[in-house]
Design brief:
This protein is of the alpha+beta class and 188 residues long. It has 2 domains: 39 residues; 134 residues, Roll (SH3 type barrels), CATH 2.30.30. The chain is 27% helix and 28% strand. It contains 3 helices and 8 strands; from the N terminus they run H-H-E-E-E-E-E-E-E-E-H. The longest helix is centred in the first third of the chain and has 23 residues. The chain is elongated, with a radius of gyration of 24 Å.
Length: 188
């Protein structure tokens, strides 16, 4: 290798180091703002708020009749989860060998800081089951498959355990869910 070639390699290395140092020195303004906000709130790092796949949220499943309350359609992308939105959570595994799986929920209410939702499934076997209602295709299934929502079980989990994606179930489909909850499970 000639001296000119070595000089070019050294120059490339110096330039790469300068660029890396400059990037590290000048963070994204959004990152700076979030770091400042976390510091003001007494949080050292925000990453502890994000749930990972292996850190399944504590969720509770209850019969729908035991959770009966008023139900209304009110999706509003205001930062708080509202009825009519579709959110995702890590469902606990069915057995010890399984891993948690991310599932979609149709939000039907709140209980304090907890979200109440009905799980969706694209499995066509639910077509024949009375406790499942056809909700068609939508953003709750990224491949566009027809889906069903389970009506007889309500999932309650902390709002901090969900992932929002800006998905909303159409009002007519939500009203079909609400009408079945009112007729079959005592909701108002």
């Amino acid at each position: 290798m000639g001296s000119t070639q070595r000089e070019r390699i050294n120059l490339r290395g110096k330039i790469a180091k300068l660029v890396t140092d400059r990037i590290n020195k000048h963070k994204n303004p959004l990152d700076d703002g979030l770091a400042h906000l976390n510091d003001r709130l007494g949080l050292k790092e925000a990453h502890h708020l994000v749930r990972t796949r292996l850190d399944s949220p504590e969720c509770h499943v209850a019969p729908s009749a035991d959770c009966a309350r008023s139900i209304f359609y009110a999706p509003d992308m205001d930062g708080q989860v509202d009825p009519g939105e579709v959110v995702w959570f890590w469902a606990p595994p069915m057995n010890a060998e399984s891993t948690p799986m991310e599932r979609a929920l149709v939000v039907i209410g709140r209980h304090g800081s907890d979200v109440l939702g009905l799980i969706t499934s694209p499995n066509p076997v639910h077509k024949k089951e009375d406790s499942w209602l056809d909700i068609g295709a939508g953003p709750w299934d990224e491949t566009g498959r027809q889906s069903w929502v389970r009506l007889d079980k309500v999932i309650k989990l902390p709002e901090t355990s969900i992932r929002r994606q800006g998905a909303v179930i159409p009002q007519s489909r939500f009203e079909r869910i609400a009408n079945r909850l009112r007729a079959d499970y005592g909701w108002a």
